[in-house]
Amino acid sequence: MNEIIKVNCGMKARTIKSIIRRKIDGWLDTIEDKSLKDKLSQSVIVTGGAIASMLLGEEVSDFDLYFRDHDTALAVANYCLARFHPRKKEGIAVPLSIRDEGGRIKVVVKSSGIASEAGTDKPYEYFEGSPDENAAAYVGEVIDDPAQIEDTHEETEAKALATGDEKGKPKHRPVFMTSNAITLSDKIQLILRFYGEPDEIHANYDFVHCTNYWKSWDGELVLRPAALESLLCRELRYVGSKYPICSVVRLRKFIQRGWRVNAGQVLKMAMQISELNLKDMKVLEDQLTGVDTAYFVQLIERLREKDPEKVDAAYLVEIIDRIF
Fold first, then answer.
1. How do beta strands 44-47 and 174-177 pair?
2. For residue 47, what is the enclosing H or E element?
3. Quick one: which of 7, 135, 176, 270 is 20 to 30 A from 278 by CA?
4. DSSP states of 88-127 as a string?
5. How many whole angstroms separate alpha carbon 264 and alpha carbon 236?
6. Which distant-in-sequence residues (6+ apart) come within 8 Å of 27 by Cβ?
7. pTM for this model (two decimals)
8. Number of helices and strands (H, E) in the chain?
9. Which domains, ranges and CATH numbers included, belong to the chain?
10. pLDDT, tens only, 175-202
């Protein structure tokens, strides 16, 4: 395992830690269950693209939050479900539940796979993130330019982050639910698919530049040398994933943003995909749920309606072309 650099000084590190701390504290302040709030204060791990974006001086699309243990992840899922007001489908409430399947926590959204908040027209997005041209509003909406933040601004910023948002609606309320995650308003996503200590979570990650992380229990920002090197040269380095199809789909986003990837990294993804039996509907569904976009939810629903004996590569190609 690569050596870990622990950063406790330097304006850039202090700024990133300050931003994340205020973001998490703002969310925790909205938690009405004190027992859950106490658990969360010792359990949240922020990792993924948010820290990478801040290190590069780019706008953040979302803060991805993971949890150290199963019980906390399950508790926060049930808490959010109780406070979610989903949009009705044809005047009928969408059936929602939290299921614990052998340690795998899932939000079950019958018939559609995705549930959105009543009254919202915002399109669902997860992992793929917002388009670059829409990301510029992030700084003005959530925080000042990170380069301008000073420690003296903490109290003012914390109050701003804790107040309500558009049309008097509360901050950090659930606005989207899928099997993998719960999306809150104000740029927070609660990831349910994986939980554990940082190294356990990163075992499911694909690109090394996303493996820096922040811990709520001690406020430490941990930067990995391999991640920093990848960020410095904007070169994607694939470290393997349980969901290589997701990694291939994610390539589009990074290439559009100016990242480079060499043929060897693509070959590593292809080799992992070759080991999957994508004609097995359970395998295919698991891999596409790893991608977790609305289009693939539609594909999964179509496949469930089809006799498995009649699903072959030709049928898949036809359905994919229709959907996309």
1. unpaired
2. strand 44-47
3. 176
4. PBTTBPPPEEEEEETTEEEEEETTTS-EEBTT--PPP-SS
5. 11
6. 171, 172, 184, 188
7. 0.77
8. 14, 11
9. 5-233 (3.30.460.10), 235-324 (no CATH)
10. 888 778 899 999 999 999 889 999 999 9
